[in-house]
Amino acid sequence: MGLRRRTFLGLATAMGVAALTGSNSELALARDSGKTLTFGLSANVGNLVYGPSRGAAQFIVNQQLHRGLVKFDENGRIVPALAESFEAVDPSTYRFTLRDGLTFHDGSPITSATVKASLDYLANRSVGAAIYAALSTLASIETPDARTVVIKLSKPNASFLDYLADPNAGISPASALASGAANWIGAGPFKLQANDSGVSLTLAKADTYYDKDNVALAGIKFIYYPDSTARTNALIAGDVQMIDFVGWEDFDRVEADKKLVLDAVPGPFVYMLFNTERAPFDNPKVRQAVAHAINRENVVAAAFYGHGTPLNGIPVSPGNDRFDPKMGELWTYDPDKARALLASAGVAEGLKVSLLTSSTYSFFRDMALSVQADLQAVGIEAELDAPDWPTYTASKNSGKYGLAVAGGAPSVTGPVYLQAYVVGAPASSFGSYGYNASDIVAHIQAGEALSNDAAARAEYMKAVDIIRDAVPFLPVAQRSQAFARSNTVEGFKNLPGFLSITGTGYMLEKTSIR
Amino acid sequence: MGLAAYCAKRLLVGLAMVVCVQVIIFLAIQVVPGDPVEAMMSETAGVGPEVIEALRQQFGLDKPIPVRLLDHIVGLFRLDLGTSLQYNQSAFAIITSRLAVSIELVVLAAFFGIVGGIFFGSLSVRTRWGDRLISVCGPFILSVPGYVLGSVLILALSLTLGWLPAGGMAPFSDPLAHMQRLVLPVITLALPIAATIAKVTRFEILEVRTQDWVRTSRAYGFPTKVTFRRDILRNALTPVLTISALELGGLIGATVLVEKVFNLPGLGSLLVSAVGIRDYALIQGAVFVISTFYIIINIAADIMYGFLDPRVSKR
In terms of CB atoms within 10 Å, which end of chain B has fewer, N or C? Predict the structure, then answer.
């Protein structure tokens, strides 16, 4: 008896459904046996471009494809990478000796001339390189032989090596050193295998990598998940084995799943900016009043679902000997003191200000709402202005605000990072509009010139004393920055502090799948 | 005016509309505050106005607006939509890759929505349980927003039961994984269409079955199934097809939220993110494709009317 048409269709449908549903876990198992890590990445990185900072997702990809002279290890220390060794000849001069036989993924050699061409390109202002701040003091790069690079700076910079470990400072071939050129060929532990535009990026272990014997993974498949909830869902469903930038609202969901590991550390910070070119924030007493009016605990609760750390001073990176704990104790939540400061500034009654934030990021908006309530409590009426990100950026850079919410993710661990935040806009887009920070910068520069940590710390402390009184910017909270992974993924570590964003990507070369 | 002249006229009007839409969009995004270079460099420390200006020159954003507009319109005819600042890639290449996902989603959702709607609409007239199913489920499905429906499906079928992936897209080279990832978004998009089509089908069948020709067919003694299929359903489907065309037109815009919930790299989410960072080339390119899609559907409908009713082309 032949199959009836309807029976056949029913069977075919059932087989189709089984194929579409039942084999999901089998596929995942097949992937695992190949030791390729599937990674849900928080943004589509597009066509990699050499130099500029394009966000944390691109940092992670850069750190797999590219390698610089140095990198961060699992303890956040600078260790040699393409350079076999390095030394500070004096506070302004660094000598690097390259490893023997270095090549890019395409087999082309890496010599001291390649390194010089890369760094010269990044030192060009119009490139907008992430490490331009460090290379702006570049005096010369000498290449006495094919494996030696001597970098001379016009003034000392104790954090220069940190800058060279930045994910945007890998050494790239000549083909990438042009505006709009794609930057896929590097000297990193993984090479590009497939780029499914807008969907995923598949990398394979590179045989050209100098430390290839210690790379456990056969490859990494980055799958783009821009939506935070969709990213977490993919991890919980087993579609991916690791994700970056876990949404704060999803921490509990991930922690509740026994098969998953949440790796959260205090990461980047959020802060307030002031328009110091016009009243009332041209008056340091009013800025101090705001510093004492904001309840940081409330900000952490409102903006980060409680997953953050209140800041009563400037954020310091753990493990860096150049910070003094006193730097983190500048202001306390004290509404009475805030009211007194406002009274002494002559603006106690009916002060109205605009508070700029952005609707693009919910934590920006929620932080502004929390700050608005705190200001109201001390008699400041803040009117919220919450446009999208480009409008917010334009308003911030052109001083169209009174108070503004901002976010910071420094790329270096030392106190020199403060420069970008204290120097006022428009000279530095991270700073308060119109603020003149020459006295603070002078102390920071003096600290950078000192090789003795204790002496340098004392110099930085002078800068921080000015920050306490002048409040050129106001750090409010450090947010938790989390990666999450399947418990079968081992050897990975989220680096604490600022390095969570700029250093953690280096850990994937040490990662394996059980 | 003959049919050929009528078609030529409709095509010319369509072409003019495409250009008009592009001019309006181009000017509109210039008026909106926010600079693409400032937004792009917002995460780089120590960026001052000189760097911003140098990059603006590099990307040609310092040229006068009329010059850029002309360059853009000329580029359209060569299918050169410019370079995306965000992705450092040809906007045309990005848009075509995203368009494939959107079209696949729209076509599958429309197919299952329309076929399912007609099936359940017919069933509701012929069986009591079908009638109850449509009466209860139809309003429920139509009242639940797509992103809620999608989230519930993910929770039930992916996170709880683990039957299907929670989202994302797999390349065509892996057809099984590719189809797996389309199941839930297609269901999410197709269900409201099916509910609408089922309602309309039901109403039309009830209307048509009271007509004289149906009574005649029954009087001739044709089997009920034959009368239903040949004399009732076929006549009831004309308005259903009109509604289906409207649903199809609206679907390409409706996919945005579903793309977000299921992490699908479609054209709608691309446009939303491009607006969010003022990626001019992508905004203009995506609007070009979407507006051309709508205009082509309209022209096709106009030409079809001309075929079906010769009086239309003579007006």
Answer: C
